[in-house]
């Protein structure tokens, strides 16, 4: 029986809504010794993920570079530097030794700044277990060439390693406190034609079931390109949105910035071979809404500082030089290679690099950006209408009929 394509609506719902047996390696959390998971990076996001995974029944080791941070994690069950006031679940381990963290780990999550990803992945690669799954939980592009996190991991890891992305709208403090969160797990190997499709499906469905116990709901996709583009570019939109807030331009202007940012995501995703409809999930519009709409976001706060005229140096000194600021610079390599101009990225760069004024940069973004709405690429491949037309037609009829006429669940 063939594995369904994750982007096939009906087949996806059939597969995901079923209750599959826990796959080998993930079911031990229920029936025996807990599976070992390593989280590399003890910032706010890495610590929050480690707490959620520990709470879900796994044995988690959190790796940090700083001995003082490891000491606090061990003795206080907290991360006072990045998540003050939050008590972490019992049993969570912490270490500065990479080999200790990775020993026997079946899942390795790299929750690091994008600038540190390659160096850490190169150090970790020789220490990985042969059956380890490696997920990038960082949002950005590599500085010099604009490489996506999975491209960096592919350069560093064994050719047979199962690689993926964990992304979506997720303030770290809420995840650490166990509040409901919906994320996207993107594994290219979920594509039915992939040599590791069966293994990828078993892992993804098992992790999805396990994390449900920690109030984290997972969406599954094979489209790692869109998941990474959405996660990186939403930070730029948040910076521009914060600048607009500081300038008092109003909610209408911020909505326009979000719209332009979503179009930037769409164009870059398509240029890199991803599917723009993936951006309609948590890793795209969900993350964009959360980050651009809240002053709780570090990128939005950076935008507020820039909009008030504080400048890059003051923002860096305050600790507010974020992944969004780095992404605005690093995505430029991709724009040049692909012949694209990302409008929100250009606006942010004008203020960050060229010492431009926020009012002028925002005016150019809002008034000079293209107003034409281009047709979307076809969702259903023209070569296979018979395979999917009936199911999609049924979905369309249900949508037209309205929620009241949906079949009973």
TrEMBL record:
<dbReference type="InterPro" id="IPR036291">
    <property type="entry name" value="NAD(P)-bd_dom_sf"/>
</dbReference>
<dbReference type="Pfam" id="PF07479">
    <property type="entry name" value="NAD_Gly3P_dh_C"/>
</dbReference>
<dbReference type="GO" id="GO:0046168">
    <property type="term" value="P:glycerol-3-phosphate catabolic process"/>
</dbReference>
<dbReference type="GO" id="GO:0051287">
    <property type="term" value="F:NAD binding"/>
</dbReference>
<dbReference type="GO" id="GO:0005829">
    <property type="term" value="C:cytosol"/>
</dbReference>
<dbReference type="GO" id="GO:0047952">
    <property type="term" value="F:glycerol-3-phosphate dehydrogenase [NAD(P)+] activity"/>
</dbReference>
<comment type="similarity">
    <text>Belongs to the NAD-dependent glycerol-3-phosphate dehydrogenase family.</text>
</comment>
<dbReference type="GO" id="GO:0005975">
    <property type="term" value="P:carbohydrate metabolic process"/>
</dbReference>
<feature type="domain" description="Glycerol-3-phosphate dehydrogenase NAD-dependent C-terminal">
    <location>
        <begin position="223"/>
        <end position="361"/>
    </location>
</feature>
<keyword id="KW-0560">Oxidoreductase</keyword>
<feature type="domain" description="Glycerol-3-phosphate dehydrogenase NAD-dependent N-terminal">
    <location>
        <begin position="37"/>
        <end position="187"/>
    </location>
</feature>
<dbReference type="InterPro" id="IPR006109">
    <property type="entry name" value="G3P_DH_NAD-dep_C"/>
</dbReference>
<dbReference type="Pfam" id="PF01210">
    <property type="entry name" value="NAD_Gly3P_dh_N"/>
</dbReference>
<protein>
    <submittedName>
        <fullName>Putative Glycerol-3-phosphate dehydrogenase (NAD(P)+) 1 (NAD(P)H-dependent glycerol-3-phosphate dehydrogenase 1) gpsA1</fullName>
        <ecNumber>1.1.1.94</ecNumber>
    </submittedName>
</protein>
<dbReference type="InterPro" id="IPR006168">
    <property type="entry name" value="G3P_DH_NAD-dep"/>
</dbReference>
<dbReference type="InterPro" id="IPR008927">
    <property type="entry name" value="6-PGluconate_DH-like_C_sf"/>
</dbReference>
<dbReference type="InterPro" id="IPR013328">
    <property type="entry name" value="6PGD_dom2"/>
</dbReference>
<dbReference type="InterPro" id="IPR011128">
    <property type="entry name" value="G3P_DH_NAD-dep_N"/>
</dbReference>
């Amino acid at each position: 029986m063939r594995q369904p394509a994750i982007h096939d609506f009906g087949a996806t719902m059939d597969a995901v809504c079923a209750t599959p047996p826990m796959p080998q390696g993930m079911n031990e959390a229920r029936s025996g010794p807990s599976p070992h998971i390593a989280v590399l990076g003890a910032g706010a996001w890495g610590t929050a993920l480690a707490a959620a995974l520990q709470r879900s029944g796994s044995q988690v080791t959190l790796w940090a570079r700083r001995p003082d941070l490891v000491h606090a994690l061990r003795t206080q069950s907290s991360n006072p530097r990045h998540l003050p006031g939050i008590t972490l679940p019992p049993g969570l381990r912490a270490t500065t030794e990479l080999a200790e963290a990775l020993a026997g780990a079946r899942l390795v999550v790299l929750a690091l700044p994008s600038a540190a990803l390659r160096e850490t992945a190169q150090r970790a690669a020789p220490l990985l277990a042969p059956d380890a799954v490696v997920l990038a939980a960082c949002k950005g592009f590599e500085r010099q060439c604009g490489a996506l996190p999975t491209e960096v991991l592919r350069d560093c890891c064994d050719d047979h390693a199962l690689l993926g992305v964990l992304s979506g709208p997720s303030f770290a403090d809420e995840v650490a406190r166990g509040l409901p969160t919906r994320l996207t797990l993107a594994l290219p190997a979920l594509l039915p034609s992939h040599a590791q499709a069966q293994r990828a499906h078993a892992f993804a469905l098992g992790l999805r079931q396990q994390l449900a116990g920690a109030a984290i709901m997972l969406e599954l996709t094979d489209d790692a390109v869109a998941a990474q583009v959405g996660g990186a570019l939403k930070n730029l939109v948040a910076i521009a949105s914060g600048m607009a807030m500081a300038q008092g331009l109003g909610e209408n202007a911020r909505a326009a910035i979000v719209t332009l940012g979503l179009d930037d995501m769409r164009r870059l995703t398509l240029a890199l071979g991803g599917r723009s409809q993936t951006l309609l999930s948590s890793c795209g519009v969900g993350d964009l809404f959360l980050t651009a709409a809240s002053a709780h976001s570090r990128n939005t706060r950076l935008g507020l500082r820039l909009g008030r005229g504080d400048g890059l140096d003051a923002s860096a000194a305050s600790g507010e030089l974020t992944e969004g600021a780095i992404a605005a610079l690093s995505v430029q390599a991709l724009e040049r290679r692909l012949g694209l101009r990302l409008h929100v990225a250009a606006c942010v760069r004008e203020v960050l690099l060229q010492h431009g004024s926020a009012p002028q940069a925002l005016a150019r973004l809002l008034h000079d950006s293209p107003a034409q709405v281009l047709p979307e690429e076809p969702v259903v491949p023209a070569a296979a209408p018979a395979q999917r037309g009936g199911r999609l037609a049924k979905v369309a009829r249900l949508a037209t009929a309205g929620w009241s006429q949906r079949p009973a669940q």
